[in-house]
Amino acid sequence: MKGIKSRKIFGLPLALSTPEKAVDHITEEHEKLGGKYVTFCNVHTLMTARNDAAYAQAQKDAYLRMPDGKPLAWCLKGRGYREASQVAGPDFMQRMLRLPAERNGKHYFYGASETTLRKLEEVIRSNYPDAQIAGMESPPFRELTEEEEKEALQRMNDSGADYIWIGLGAPKQEYFMQRNAGRARGIMFGVGAAFDFHAGRVDRAPKWLRRIGLEWLFRLLQDPQRLWKRYLMTNTQFLLLLPGYFFHAWQHRKNG
Q1: CA–CA distance, 153 with 176 (Å, rounded to integer)
Q2: Strands of 73-232, DSSP E
Q3: How far is 191 from 166, CA to CA, in rounded Å?
Q4: Can you give the residue ranges of every domain in the chain?
Q5: 66, 170 contact by CB (below 8 A)
Q6: Is 0.85 surpassed by the pTM of this model?
Q7: Opening angle at CA 230, ends 91 and 115, nearest 5
Q8: Quick check: 152 and 139 in contact, CB under 8 A?
């Protein structure tokens, strides 16, 4: 199967893919992808990467960077890449879990609270019977020692998991995957709050809001005290940079 192409937005290459193509590619190539990782980028993480060289490298070291946010997919389409589409982490995870048995695999879930993981396990066993749960682990809500992280990785590998879902939130999950790239048996996915969404612990934005690119607003209204500064800074920066982005794209096309 052909690989997935990428094109840059503000220096970060993002995948040109549909959710269906992304799932097909990962499942067909998963035996070759062990130890690699996939990130899901939104406006916040894109701007964070632009402003932080270490985080930008953690993103660039990924096998693929999916356009998790609708505005990023719109930017790619606006550049003329018609095959670009939003590939949101929670949706991608759901598509992977609901694959039929012959295409599914073993899944390991690392992140969130014990309560969330117990509920997530119930949901998976009820709604996705063909997905095999290789393990679930809620790490301490603090920085792990080098030895603790090594032991956690060993548990993931010993489980035989094909797919390792990392729900630590950005930027923690990207740094975790970068440090363990090449050492994990399965392919890792940094899916942020997907565990909480699928476990029903946090409400996700209605589909109509997601379609018009306002999922961030729904999340902001849910948790304004924690998120207001994040969205004020990065969303504003993104909007201010957009005219230059499209101007340079126009110049590039004009000059052939």
Answers
A1: 10
A2: 106-111, 132-137, 163-167, 187-190
A3: 6
A4: 6-202+211-249
A5: no
A6: yes
A7: 50
A8: yes
Going residue by residue through the chain, which has 256 residues, state the pLDDT in tens, using 9 for 90 and above.
468 999 999 999 999 999 999 999 999 999 999 999 999 999 999 999 999 999 999 999 999 999 998 999 999 998 889 889 999 999 999 999 999 999 999 999 999 999 999 999 999 999 999 999 999 999 998 999 999 999 999 999 999 999 999 999 999 999 999 999 999 999 999 999 999 999 999 888 788 888 887 887 777 778 787 777 777 788 888 888 887 676 666 555 655 5
Identify the CATH assignment for 6-202+211-249 out of 3.30.470.10, 2.60.40.1940, 3.40.50.10700, 3.40.50.1220. Answer: 3.40.50.10700
What does the alpha-carbon distance between residue 218 and residue 209 come to, in Å, rounded to a whole number? 8
What are the structure tokens assigned to 30, written together? 């998963």
Q: Any bridge partners for residue 7, and if so which?
A: 14
| Cα distances (angstroms) measured from residue 229 to each of 164, 223, 224 | 31, 11, 9
Q: Distance of CA 125 to CAs 10, 116, 130, 191, 199, Å?
A: 41, 14, 8, 20, 12
